[in-house]
Amino acid sequence: MKLLQSYVKGTWEKPTDEGSPIYDAVSGEEVARISSFGIDMAAALDYGRKVGGPGLAELTFHQRAALLKALGSFLKEHREELYQLSYRSGATLGDSKFDIDGGIGVLSSYASKARRELDNETVYVEGPVEQLGKSGQFVGQHILTSLRGVAVQINAFNFPVWGPLEKFAPAFLAGVPSLIKPASQTAYLTARLVELLVSSDLLPEGSLQLICGSVGDLFEHLTDQDMVSFTGSASTAHKLSSHPVVVSRAVRFNAEADSLNCSILGPDGKAGSVVLELFVKQLVTEMTVKAGQKCTAIRRAFVPESLVEAVTEAVCERLAGIVVGNPSDPEVNMGALASQGQRDEVRGRFAELAQAGHLVFGDLYKVEVVGADPQRGAFISPLLMVCDDSSRAEPHEVEVFGPASTIIPYRDVKDVVALAARGQGSLAGSVVSADTSFCTEVVLGLAPWHGRILVLDPADARESTGHGSPLPALVHGGPGRAGGGEELGGMRSVLHHMQRSAVQGSPVVLGQITKRWVPGAERITGGIHPFRKPLSELRVGDSVIGGPRTITLSDIEHFAEFTGDTFYAHMDEEAARANPLFGGRVAHGYLVLSFSAGLFVQPEPGPVLANYGLENLRFLSPVYPGDEITVTLTCKQIKPREDVDYGEVRWDVEVTNQAGSPVASYDVLTLVAKQWPLQPS
Ligand code: NAP
Asked: How far are the Cα atoms of 178, 426, 491 from residue 421, in angstroms, in the given order?
């Protein structure tokens, strides 16, 4: 039988003992054996810090993103093999797609978000420059740099592919090497995933390591620069987050734990309504996908008191159509739990929960199974309970990590918000209703206890990704019982792997550090116009002054007629005089903007290929007929793109009047060729 190996220090290492068996969830046969006995945890961490981190540090955010994209494409070519292995964990093809395609999707999604949202650099510059002194020569800027340690990633058994990938992608982008520890029950799938990733030859040395089996003494060797991202039960999260080394060295610890997620049916979910159908369909999906072994699954289904009967009937009817059995059989739509042990756990927990209600669907010990031996596989029927007394603690406190849910009656909005809060913090909640006032009240009431809330109604149902799907762009995590952590959420999770530092200094120093021109720093004037310089010649700080140009009343009238913008402040002297801000006719802001472009633009073909937008535009004070405007254009930031022969240039534009007072300021965004004349491609 295959003894799983760990991938550490750039090689596959076998444990020095026989390991413990892992069983097929469907046939009960041994799939593999697992142990980390003999693996040197301290050396693995050290290797990550000394080899993985420095290797990643040589790459920019965009280069790391390109590797993530390539890793995603590589895995896509091999996903069939992963699907086959995934059947052994009890997952149907649909479940596996959720796990495997979902994980690959996280890689590609992070790759493209990073290319759009991060600069092609290694340091992240956050927010605007803060002026700290009167003259502008003392300023502050937040920057984020990669932690110099290892991201230890401990995963739960239910998503052996998505789980590791959703932690690896942001760590990799942040430049922090990952050390993955999968849950033992399904570690054979994660091990194969890592084998594939390693075989792609795309990974920088040391950027990814794998420990199969227990973590041994790893926690003893963590430092202030390492971090731990944990997914699993609240009790393990508590144990690990209170480890003396984690506490004394303030090791960053992110926990994704269990949660008693809820879904709330609105009062408009009457029998026969589309809203009721949506609620029921979603509930049954959440109960049966991955046989309910989803941290985001709906455990509590809140229903208006008067609708309990109708909802129960509709859910039972739908559950009756669920075929339990061998997940590789196309007829089957719910596979097995991950192990016999997990089934014992579900039975025990459900018996505890059932003290607060009565079972209306399913049986803890009996289930009809298609294509497999019910004695050997970890099969269980879907279990639906109706709560007899919603004030009881069990429905709000006992998590049954399987295909189980409880219908709980509620009286009104206040009642349901209070009941939902008794879950003490959840990953995901949903409200199903077309009554927007009800939804608003519920969302705002639920929000302090929830990491994500879906409002499902007939308008968004077709496109909705559903209650249980964490999305790369949105935060995954929740307060309180859910662990208090935060994963995904776009670039947020990348930044969790970096240290934020407030740097204070002069504009020149901050400009050097951030590779940007900072107001207050010197401008480089004279010489050729910066619009005539390709990226190979352009320097941050290159600047040109245009103007002055006088704005006349006839300019304003001409602009008004030409554009159709005949707003009274530009055209009606008497009305404009009554305006408390202007006291007379003023030029259009857009006229000032257009004239300033006319003062800095170079008409002939040149390296500036296109203007693709403006940002931070502010009209700071009125411009009156007869005023003279002068414009100063300064190259603020240069961002060459990796795979094309041009890049982005951000220009600072300041428009002043004859008194030298600023009247407008903004950033112009352009695409500029790397070389000029253009090189034939
Ligand atoms: P668990 O026992 O807490 O195990 C989770 C992970 O922690 C596994 O990799 C496990 O490894 C490891 N682990 C256990 N004890 C450890 C220790 N002393 N030191 C280091 N690592 C240790 O959780 P589970 O019961 O398998 O998983 C189900 C739970 O996870 C459910 O409660 C579910 O709600 C929760 N979950 C949460 C999320 C989320 O995103 N919030 C996602 C999925 C699941 P071994 O397997 O080798 O023991």
From this structure: 35, 9, 29
The finding on whether 257 has its CB within 6 A of some atom of ligand 1 is: yes
- Closest to 668 (Cα-Cα) out of 594, 589, 568: 594
Which of 390, 479, 474 shows the shortest CA–CA distance to 427? Answer: 479
In this predicted structure, what is the pLDDT of residue 679?
79
CA distances from 648 to 406, 607, 672 (A): 54, 11, 6
Tokens of 615: 């940002």
Chain segment 226-249, per-residue pLDDT in tens: 999 999 999 999 999 999 999 999
Q: Is 256 a catalytic residue?
A: yes
DSSP state of 672: E
The whole-angstrom distance between residue 286's C-alpha and the CA centroid of its chain comes to 21
Instruction: Give me the pLDDT at residue 390, please.
Output: 87
Q: Give CA–CA dist 290/303, Å, rounded.
A: 24
Domain 261-482 architecture: 3-Layer(aba) Sandwich (3.40)
pLDDT at 1 over 70: no
* Max CA pair span of the chain: 93
What amino acid is encoded at 8 in this protein?
Answer: V
- 295 tagged catalytic: yes
- Give ranges for CATH 3.40.309.10 in the chain: 261-482
Is the CB of residue 162 below 6 angstroms from any atom belonging to ligand 1?
no
Q: Which of 184, 193, 130 lies closest to 166, judged by CA?
A: 193
* pTM, entire model: 0.93
DSSP secondary structure code for residue 50 in this structure: I
CATH code that applies to domain 523-673: 3.10.129.10
CATH 3.40.605.10 fits 2-120+148-258, yes or no: yes
Ligand 1 probe mutation, 231, 424, 452, most atoms within 8 A of CB: 231
Instruction: Inform me whether the pLDDT recorded for 597 exceeds 70.
Output: yes
State the span(s) of the chain assigned CATH 3.40.605.10. 2-120+148-258
HSE of 624, CA atoms in CB hemisphere, 13 A: 11
pLDDT tens digits along 267-281: 999 999 999 999 999
Reported as a single tens digit per residue, the pLDDT across 123-172 is 999 999 999 999 999 999 999 999 999 999 999 999 999 999 999 999 99
* Size of the chain, expressed as the number of residues it contains: 681
CA angle 483, 488, 493 (to 5 degrees): 90
| pLDDT tens, residue by residue, 321-340 | 999 999 999 999 999 999 99
For the Cβ of 338 lying below 6 angstroms from any atom of ligand 1, the answer is no
Indicate the residue type of 625. P
Token pair recorded at residue 517: 């021109």
Q: pLDDT tens digit string along 169-195? A: 999 999 999 999 999 999 999 999 999
